[in-house]
Prior knowledge:
Layout: E1 4-10, H1 17-28, E2 34-40, H2 47-51, E3 56-60, H3 70-87, E4 91-95, H4 97-110, E5 114-119, H5 130-144, E6 149-152, H6 155-163, E7 172-174, H7 181-190, H8 193-199, E8 207-212, H9 221-232, E9 238-243, H10 249-258, E10 265-269, H11 274-280, E11 283-286, H12 295-302, E12 307-310, E13 325-328, H13 333-345, H14 347-358, H15 367-385
Parallel strand pairs: 1-2, 1-4, 2-3, 4-5, 5-6, 6-7, 8-9, 8-11, 9-10, 11-12, 12-13
Amino acid sequence: MSKIKVAHVITLLELGGAQGNTLFTVTRLDKNQFNVSLICGTGGILDAEAKKIPNITLHWVPNLIRSIRPWKDFAALIQLVKIFKQEQYQIVHTHSSKAGILGRIAARIAGVPILIHSIHGFGFNPYQKLIVRWLFIALEGWIAKFTSILIAVSQQNIEMGLHLNIGTRSQYCLIRSGVDIQKIRETALQINIHELKKELQISDDELIVLTMGPFKIQKDPLAFVRLASKVSKVVPNVKFLMAGDGELRPQIERLIQELNLKNTLQLLGWKKDAAKWMALCDVFVLTSLWEGLPRSGVEALICGKPFVAFSVDGIPEIIHNGKNGFCLPPGQLDLMAEKLIELLQNKSLRNTFNQNAKQTINDSFDIHKMVTQQEELYLQLTHSSNP
């Protein structure tokens, strides 16, 4: 039996859940059954990691970038069509908004029989100009008509897509954004909290609030800085840590200075060892404006950390409000500060949330199961297209 040729296409290999899961998938797909390629833009922090993956074919598309640049986008489309025609893939599986649009159009032009797109959160959001938002929705709706399967990481994304006439219910498949649950638990148990705090010049009696993710508009990291200012005025023995980096870093640094938080808030830079930092913190916070279902939040809960975030997209599917964290109305930063203060000042409440958090994440979030589910989907679709 000949191997199934499958290509994963993603815009940029930055440090994020979609990127991490894509790399894990192309690494772990059964090479006895699948001939695997990875196609992506250049300049991501995980490019070097991708080059080390054995038994896959790598195609770099320099014109595949996140921002909208018509000439570069057209050039990327042409290059993708060329790759698809040359390689004769049976399956093209796209991730992220730009790669999802250009990759599926190119695959359609090239005559690829099976097109799969993973929705790690939609490319449109309530904060875009209305005409831009509806243009993206119309484009997603059109491309869905020739997409075989739409994989969603949250049930909420499925319902939103159906509400906006993007695909039909039979096209959707729920496969969680997986993490290595066992490895995270083991790593968290091995961390020397005292030594790590000492390294960061944080005393043992100080509490730690952590956020993690790229410094971009979606994550609204400036709101986290403002949150730190509000909370530290009431809770003096707290330190705030931001793991990540990106385009908003200069604005973040300016706001830290303006709010006089240089002794309260530390910028850690990119951190690949998420479980280590989750183990260190007392509370994990996201101020995201929109999400698919955040991998970092899943990791925090596995480590038994209370999770505080705004109720956007798939987040309510993992935060059980008032039991393992607080899931708050979007944009209500004062309320988030109030709830965070309550958690930091009440050790008994933190302990209760801690125990509940550890029970939240089941094996549907396991990254090995995620790969198995994708393999089963590929086999099912290829069998259906070749009866």
